[in-house]
Amino acid sequence: MRADIKLERDNGISLDRQIADGIIKAIDDGLLRPGDHLMPIRQIANTLGVARATVDAAYALLVSEGYIQTARGKGSFVSTDFPQAPSEANSSENTQSKPVSEKSSLLRSAMSELLPQKNIPLAIVSTSADASPGKEFAAILQRITRKSLLDMVYSHPAGLPELKLEICKIASRLRGVRCSPSQVVVTSGSQLGLTMTLLALFTPGDKVLFEDPGYPLLHSSARLCGLDPVFTPIDKEGLNLKTGLAMAPDAKGIYLTPSHQCPLGMMMSMRRRSEVLDWASRTGGWIIEDDYDSELRYGGNLPYPSLQGMDSGENVIYVGTFSKVLFPGLRLGYLIVPERLVELFSGLRLLIDRQGQELYQAAVAQYIREGQYEPHLRRMRQIFEERRNYLLEVCRREFGDWGVFSSGEQGMHVVFTFKNQNIDDHAVQRLCLEQGVETRHLSSFYHEQPPLKGLVLGFGFFNESQILSAVSRIGFVLRHNFSAWA
Ligand SMILES: Cc1ncc(COP(=O)(O)O)c(C=O)c1O
Known about the structure:
It is a single chain. Helix content is about 45%, strand content about 15%. By secondary structure, the protein is α/β, with parallel strands linked by helices. It folds into 3 domains: about 1-100, Arc Repressor Mutant, subunit A; about 135-370, 3-Layer(aba) Sandwich (Aspartate Aminotransferase, domain 2); about 380-485, Aspartate Aminotransferase, domain 1. Strands 3-10-9-8-7-4-5-6 form an 8-stranded mixed β-sheet, with helices on both faces. The protein has a 4-stranded antiparallel β-sheet with strand order 11-12-14-13. It has a two-stranded antiparallel sheet with strand order 1-2. Helix 1 (about 15-30) crosses helix 3, helix 2 (about 40-50) crosses helix 3 (about 50-65) and helix 6 crosses helix 14. Bound molecules: pyridoxal-5'-phosphate. Pyridoxal-5'-phosphate (PLP) binds near residues 125, 191, 262, 290 and 323.
């Protein structure tokens, strides 16, 4: 055989792949032509000093990729119509000139601007051995995997009935949501649920009010869906509907985080809630209620029940997630939609994604049904409250004179607003990251010129010594780079 194959035993590529690639190269270089016989397996194995099974596996790869054929009594020979490798010049020219979606710059900027934080202090969402449902959840997952893999088939796009039932129970008990299990549509985290809601309820070009500051990931999803987002300023009572409608009298919907404004943390006042519910029933507008972390509340503080629970049942899409209380990597969230929209949302899920991952759905249903969810939540609240208090105490000690803390007594983050608004909070974030500390700069949540600059700090998943060390590094960054603005 006229192939010069050199094997490297520790380059991370399997030997069968290296042999197959050597033969492909010989074909591409014209050293082996269509119809040429390959050496018998035993002979190549001896020549290269490898096991026959390795050469066997290499030949199997070449057969499956169409480069060689085998025939009884004839051995193996180069295919007469093997795949042609495109010439390098052509392929890169084509890739550059081929048109892609007009949304490509939005998609690229998502990857540069909206990637999740690193899993280091003080990231907002993470997991940790003491605050995440480790062993118990893993045991359920193992049991389910052993028992029921054969039952995992194509199923209803709205989710497993047993999970819908449990979601309905916890949402009514913990958040005052009024629903029946048939109104639940399980999604891959709230990101899919929110994007599905924008697609199902609105038409490209529709104006929808969004909070400013607000949840940046969703702002980009709105643009992806072709909507015209209208960024409405937040004040201490939450989103002001009148201001929003002055900019967009024909708005078709409103997205809200009424229980814990993202990121500033206030609860939307009762007066503002009544205004939006009244607007929705008068005009036919939709309310999207993102209730992303209000199960986590501290200091005996009770959030208002969900907006959905205050509504007649026709105006609000309630969006929940297991990312905060269980794990973000589960990718499990849910929508609670008016009965008449269930078919619409189920059809949308079917077209986008067919259905969710049944294994995780079954495991979470079991975790809740066994009564483990609420004790876990209580444990989490206790740990998070202690850590939140500790973070506030050490931050005040370390750099308290640089600004003020705000945010409601719930969730997983606090907001520190700089007294001196000339401080470039993006630069602070970057310098903190160089010191191994994650923060989010407050300006990144604003669409319009940010009236407030500061840092958003997570506290839940890191122990006291990690918090202390991260906070002193933030203090160091401020003192060494911004002392002129102190
Ligand atoms: C406002 C808001 N909504 C929802 C989520 C949860 O997203 P998901 O359920 O897709 O993980 C987050 C996570 O950070 C958030 O900040």
